[in-house]
From TrEMBL, chain A:
Any one GO CC term of the record: mitochondrial inner membrane
Domain Cytochrome c, first and last residues per copy: 87-239
Transmembrane segments: 38-63
Quaternary structure, from the entry: Component of the ubiquinol-cytochrome c oxidoreductase (cytochrome b-c1 complex, complex III, CIII), a multisubunit enzyme composed of 11 subunits. The complex is composed of 3 respiratory subunits cytochrome b, cytochrome c1 and Rieske protein UQCRFS1, 2 core protein subunits UQCRC1/QCR1 and UQCRC2/QCR2, and 6 low-molecular weight protein subunits UQCRH/QCR6, UQCRB/QCR7, UQCRQ/QCR8, UQCR10/QCR9, UQCR11/QCR10 and subunit 9, the cleavage product of Rieske protein UQCRFS1.
Family under the similarity heading: Belongs to the cytochrome c family.
Organism field: Potamilus streckersoni
Protein name in UniProt: Cytochrome c1, heme protein, mitochondrial
Matching InterPro entries: Cyt_c-like_dom, Cyt_c-like_dom_sf, Cyt_c1, Cyt_c1_TM_anchor_C
Cofactor(s) essential for the protein: heme c
UniProt-annotated binding residues for heme c: 100, 103-104, 223
Gene Ontology biological-process entries: mitochondrial electron transport, ubiquinol to cytochrome c
Compartment(s) where it occurs, according to its Swiss-Prot or TrEMBL record: Mitochondrion inner membrane
Automatic annotation (TrEMBL), chain B:
Pfam family membership, one: UCR_UQCRX_QCR9
Function comment: Component of the ubiquinol-cytochrome c oxidoreductase, a multisubunit transmembrane complex that is part of the mitochondrial electron transport chain which drives oxidative phosphorylation. The complex plays an important role in the uptake of multiple carbon sources present in different host niches.
Keyword terms of this UniProt record: Electron transport, Membrane, Mitochondrion, Mitochondrion inner membrane, Respiratory chain, Transmembrane, Transmembrane helix, Transport
This protein's record includes keyword Transcription: no
Subcellular location: Mitochondrion inner membrane
Chief location bin: mitochondrion
Bilayer topology term: Single-pass membrane protein
Record note on quaternary structure: Component of the ubiquinol-cytochrome c oxidoreductase (cytochrome b-c1 complex, complex III, CIII), a multisubunit enzyme composed of 3 respiratory subunits cytochrome b, cytochrome c1 and Rieske protein, 2 core protein subunits, and additional low-molecular weight protein subunits.
Name of this protein: Complex III subunit 9
Length: 303, 70
């Protein structure tokens, strides 16, 4: 009896409908029934919506968000393949040197960085020679002053941060080397700060020694308006309006923060072109290699 | 198709790619020419996009200004 049942069930279980066994996984979305499709779509939508809602609810509303956000200006170098306008960078250096450098340092800039970027070598040497640098010790063990060389850093307006604070009513003028990358909005923010000074609106009180600027978080900034029309004279004869000065100094600070800017974009163009060719070639190769695998059929024929 | 008639792609294959030694040589020499041509063309495009903005343009301006002052 037992052998009979065993044999019958074996025959029932092992019965094959045709000579080939088809194996098929029913995991694809396409093979689901209509109701299941709806259910999966609904679950997906609900999950995405829930995550979105949770993120939205957890995003803090900051008091600093109540400052005026800078608009986006059409910078000359904003394009994916656009270099910095070197004439503008050069004018910006003039603005920095004659206006900003009174309080702000450029800690990581050397005079040699100017060579071949915005001026010729002899001009940069003359620029460097304008400052006095403490060097030494000499053979008597004394420190001495000498005119600057190309290998010297830009001079710091203050010997240390404490001196800078003491001279500026307790506020520290930030180093400008990386300021464009260090502030949200970059050049747009700096341009707006430099040109955005105005009278405080009714009800807003600005403390003694501070100035109102709607683009600055909190509205009160220690720096006074620095740029005015015709405050300096450009050596290329460009009319020195406030916005021109601000635009040039922002372009200059972009260059200072990112000296590799132009090279980066040049390499970017080359990389995009070569990799698009390689991508197409790789795709073709993949299709070619897989074509034999994908068209192959494996048959299992039990005898 | 006659025995002596060989298509141009067959000829290229037989002379340049068939033997490993020639294949290597083709790659090395090809890379040399390709890189030169690629660099020249991308530089040309880049300089066209940024005409008048780069340091070489500023250098010309500076030289002109210096000549005018003298």
């Amino acid at each position: 009896m037992a052998t009979l049942v065993s044999r019958a069930s074996k025959q029932a279980l092992l019965r094959v409908h045709s000579s080939i066994i088809h194996q098929k996984a029913n995991l694809s979305f396409k093979n689901l029934s209509k109701g299941k499709k709806w259910a999966v779509a609904a679950i997906g939508t609900l999950t995405a919506g829930g995550v979105g809602l949770a993120v939205a609810l957890n995003t803090a509303v900051l008091a600093s968000d109540l400052t005026l956000h800078p608009p986006k200006y059409p910078w000359d170098h904003a394009g994916m393949l656009s270099t910095l306008d070197r004439a503008s960078v050069r004018r910006g250096y003039q603005v920095y040197k004659q206006v900003c450098a009174a309080c702000h340092s450029l800690e990581f800039m050397y005079y040699r960085n100017l060579v071949g970027e915005i001026m010729e070598e002899d001009e940069a040497k003359a620029e460097a020679a304008e400052i006095m640098v403490v060097d030494g010790p000499n053979d008597q063990g004394l420190m001495f002053e000498r005119p600057g060389k190309l290998s010297d850093k830009f001079p710091n307006p203050y010997p240390n941060d404490e001196a800078a604070r003491a001279a500026n009513n307790g506020a520290l003028p930030p180093d400008l080397t990386f300021i464009v990358n260090a502030r949200h909005g970059g050049e747009n923010y700096l341009f707006s700060i430099l040109t955005g000074y105005c009278d405080p609106p009714a009800g807003v009180e600005v403390r003694e020694g501070l100035h109102y600027n709607p683009y600055f978080p909190g509205g009160s900034i220690a720096m006074a308006q620095a740029l005015y029309n015709e405050i300096i004279e450009y050596d290329d004869g460009t009319p020195a309006t406030t916005s021109q000065l601000a635009k040039d100094v922002c372009t200059f600070l972009r260059w200072v923060a990112e000296p590799e800017h132009d090279t980066r974009k040049r390499m970017g163009l080359k990389a995009l072109m070569i990799f698009s060719v390689l991508l197409a070639a790789t795709y073709y190769m993949k299709r070619a290699k897989w074509s034999s695998l994908k068209t192959r059929k494996i048959a299992f024929k039990p005898r | 198709m006659g025995f002596n008639r060989v298509s141009i792609s067959t000829k290229i294959y037989q002379t340049l790619f068939r033997r490993t030694s020639m294949f290597t040589l083709t790659i090395v020499v090809g890379a040399l020419f390709f890189e030169r041509a690629f660099d020249e063309s991308t530089e040309y495009i880049f300089n066209r996009i940024n005409a008048g903005k780069q340091y070489k343009d500023l250098k010309k301006q500076l030289a002109q200004r210096a000549a005018k002052e003298e």
